[in-house]
Amino acid sequence: MPKTRHVDPLFADLQVLTTRRGAWLPDGFYLDAHRHAHGQLVYAAAGALATTTDHGTWIAPADRVTWTPPGFEHSHRFYGRADARVVVVPKRMCDDLAGRPGVFAVSQLLREAILALTGRPETRAGAHGRLLAVVIDELTETPEQPLHLPEPDDDRLRAVTDLLHADPGRSSTLAELGRAAGASERTLSRLFHAELGMSFHRWRTILRIHHALLHLTNGVSVTATAMMCGWSNPSSFIAAFTDVVGQTPGRYRADHCEGPPRPPG
């Protein structure tokens, strides 16, 4: 991940996001790698969000929120015109939440509490503290969502994942990718399980769904998204997407797409 913060022409938006805890950000807005002494929840009430740490990348569409505990270096990228909300969790309150980054489903109560915390000033003493307690209570009752894409340390495995990051729709088998990376299929299969905790097929499916979420948010059709992300037919894409995200891509697109289709990329 980048280690240096660059001057950004959108610095005014960044100032709003970090000081007022909310801002509308343009498609592709990127916040360089940084860390906090406190915990942080980032929620895209519209659009989608990718949070990246050394442990991998988490995708959060508008029905998910990302959690980063104190001390983890992380970066953010926003997709679509994003209504970005940031909730700071003081370190003393972080013990009730996960000790590693993650993505959680957003209930109606959690959504309204986040919007209230980030969208209006505190009018009664202690009101924000009480809302934050509601947020933490909701998160402790909410299961994590399987939208985490872990990244490897092994050079051979990273060579394979880099090829797939460059072209998520690539249909190469693990054996074919192994020849390009200089490792056997058996070795790579073992490394996927040992380092990433999942099979090659599962890792590639999550990668493709990450990209599918972003295409759907940008208004690309379900059929076109399926083809762009490597599925041979829409029905297999719909089944895989529903299994991971918990709703069909058509429903997700209807709920989260804003405006006419835009070119992917």
TrEMBL record:
InterPro entries in the record: Homeodomain-like_sf (IPR009057), HTH_AraC (IPR018060), RmlC-like_jellyroll (IPR014710), RmlC_Cupin_sf (IPR011051)
Keyword annotations from UniProtKB, A to Z: DNA-binding, Repressor, Transcription, Transcription regulation
GO molecular function, a single term: sequence-specific DNA binding
One Pfam family named in its UniProt record: HTH_18
Domain HTH araC/xylS-type: 158-255
Name the record gives this protein: HTH-type transcriptional regulator RipA
Gene assigned in the entry: ripA_6
